[in-house]
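Practice problem: General secretion pathway protein E
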Amino acid sequence: MVLSNDSSHSLSSFGNQLIQSGYITLPRMQQAWVESHQSGRPLLETLQQITGKPLPSSLLEEYKQQHLFTLKVFHGIEFIDLGSESIDPEQIDYLIKSFIPVDICYRYQLIPLKTAQETTDSLLVAMVNPSHEEAQEKVTEILSSHNMTWQRVGIILEDFEQLIEPYVPEKPVSQKCVERNHDRTIVDLTEVLEDTAPPIPKSSPEELSKLNEAQATPVVTLVNKLLAKAVEGKATAIHLEPEENFLSIRCRQGETLQPLIDPLPKKVAGPIISRLKLMAELDINEDTIAQKGRIRKSGGGRTIYFFVETFPTFYGEKVIVRVLDSAIKPLSLLELMPDVSVRMAFEDMARLCEGLLLVTGATSKNLVSLLYGLLSEQNPQERKIGTVEESLRHILPGINQIEVDSHEPTDYLPILQSFEQEDLDVVMVDSLSDASVVETVVERTSRNCLILASLEASDGASAIAHLSQQVSPALLADSLIGVVHEHTLRRLCPTCRSIYEPSLANLTRFAIPETEKNSIYQARCLNEEAVEQARLKGRLCRQCNGQGYHGYVKLYEVIEITPSLKQAMLSHSRSETGQEVDRETSLQEAILQSHKISPISAGLELVYQGQTSLEELVQFLPNHSQETMVNDDFTLLPVYVTRRLEALEKLLLAVTQEFYQLKEALQPITISNEEKKPIASLLDEPSFEEDKRWEEFDKDFDGTQETITGEFFCYEELSDPGEWDELKRELEPDKETIAINFPQAHISENVDFFNPFNSVPDPW
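Answer key — C-alpha cells:
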C-alpha cells in the first residue's frame, strides 16, 4: 500500500465532512487512518483518541447510515440498526442459553435476536459477516438438532459488541485488537484514503465535488461489487438507468434483462455513474454528450474488460457497461448449427481464398455469433485474420480485433483500406450497413481475401437484391460466393405436443410421404378460457402455459452463387425499366434454383424431428405455392428424398459403366477408333434393332415386378449378389426381383449387345 502526505489522495465524503466541520485536519486524518489499519482498531475510536473529543452526533449518524447501506448492497441482505430496532435483551439471553452457546456467538461474531415473525421454530440471527460460510454451516448444524430453521441479517461490529458484551468476560485490549483484525468485516468502510485512485486533477469546484463523491469508499465498494456480481452471473452487459425517484440496475443474461440488485435511491446515481466514468477515464464533468471508455481488470489467469458507454437522458446519464471476459469462449458452429448439411455447406464456402460470404437474418446479434463461431474454428497460425466491429463480443486469441466508435462509414473505411495493405487472409465486418462500406468490401477487399460479413434482411433473396442496389451487380456477381440466411421458427413445447394427421392439402403441398405423416406433431394451443380451466384443474402445462410453443428453433437456407445465378444478376442489371417485373421474377427463379439448402426442405426436417409444427411452417412460407415447392425445383423436396435419389443415381451410373466395360472386354473383334461409338449413358434413348428380342421379352415380362434380365455369363459377373440386392432395394423395396432368359439371343459380332438398363425410365 502506497501512502502519501500530499492531498493527491482522495478522501471519502465522510472524511471531507470531518475536515470541513473543523473536527480534524487533513494530516491528522491521514494519521488516524494509518493507525487504525496498523492497530486493527475502528477508525472512530482512533479519531476520538487523536482529537481527544467525541465525534459530533450528526456526523456519527450519517456515517453509520452510509455504512449500513453499503453493507446491505454488498451482502444482499438487510442490516439492522440498534438505534431504530427494538431488541429484547431477555429474549437474547434465553436464545443464547437454549440454542446457540455464547462461545459460538463470539467465535463467529453472530448473535440470535428473536424468533421469526412467521413461525416460532425459526430464529433470526444477526451476523457481522453474513457471507461467512463456515459460520452458516455451524448455525445450521446446531439448530437442526432442535428441528429449527433460521434467517440471517447483518449487524455492524460496534452493535454486535454492544449486544454480546454482557455475556463475555473482559479480555486484554491487545487480544481484542488481534481478534478484531483477524475477523474484520469483508467490506472495510472505515477507509478514507483510496490508495489505488489516480491523483485529483486541477479542476473546477463542481468537477472536484463529483470526483470526491465518486471516490468515496462506500461508492467504490458498491461499484466493485456490481461489477463482480455481473461477472459471477456471466452477464454480458450492465444497464444503469436513472428514473424519477430511483436508479435501476439490471444485467443482460442471455436474451433478457434481469435485476442485478434492488433499485437504489436516486441520490446515489450521481456518485456511482461518476465512479464508473472515472474508472473508464471519461470526462466526469460532461453529461450532455455520449462517451465511450474501457476498464481492464486482470487476475486468476483471466482478463476482463468493461466497455463503458454513457448516454444523456431526461432523468440523467444512462450507463451501459458491456462485460467481455476472456474466459468465456464463443459458441461453436456445432452448437449454433446442429444440422450437419448446413454446417458443412457453410464451412466449405468459408474455406475459399477470396470472395464475400454473407450471413443474413433478422437480428445482427445472432448473425455476429455465427461469424464468431466460424472464426473460432480458424487457425490464426495458418491464416492472418482481422475483424472490424462496432462492439467486441468475444476475445479471439491470435486475431486482430478492432472496435470502431460507430457504424459511420468514416470509421470503417480507413480500417478496411489498411487491411487491404496488410495482406490479410480473412476479414470479418460485423455489418454492411452503408453503401460506401459495401462498395469498399466488394470492389477492393474481397478480391484479395475472404470477407465474412453480416446483413439484416428478411431472406437470402432480399439480401442479394439489396446489395445489387448499392453496388454494381456485375461486381457483386464477381465477388459474392454465397449467402447463409437464418430464419427463426417457434419451437413446439416438448411437454404437451401431440401427434396428429395433417390435412390432405398440407400433405400434398409439401409432398409428405406416407411413412412420415403419422410422426408429425402439432401444438396444443389453448385460448384464455381453456387456460383458466386447465389451471384450476391443475392440468396446465408448466413449460408453455398453454401457448403450445416454448422458445425458438433456427432454420437456415444456403444459397450458392452458381453460374446461372451470376448470369441472372447480370441480366438484372442490364434490364430496362419496362421489364422490371420480368427481371425480378428471373432473379427470384435463379436464386430458387441456387439453393444448396432450401428453407422448405430444412423446415420439413424440423417438422419430422418434432421441433416445430407444419402450421408454423405454413405461416413462415405463405407465398410458396404447391407447384413451387413440389414441381418447379427438385432441390425443394425433403432432404432425405433428395439424398436417396442422388445415391441411387450414382449407383445406377456405376453399374452401367461397369456393364459397358465388361461388354468391350468380351468383344471378339477390335473396332477401329473411327468406328468406335462413345459409351452410352443411363439417360440415352433406347435403340434396338431386333424386333424378335422384344417379342420374346414381352411374353415373359410382368409389369408389376421389377425385372433384371440376361442370358450370358457377363450378367453373372456384373457384380456380386450383395450389390444386386442393394440395387433392388433402392429401386423398389416392396417388389420381388426375377430373372428372365432369352434362349434365341446369340452373341454376334455384327450386332450390339442387348442392354437391359436402357429400359429403366429416367427419374430426373
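Discussion: DSSP finds 30 helices and 22 strands in the chain. Students who identified this feature from the C-alpha cells alone can consider the problem solved.
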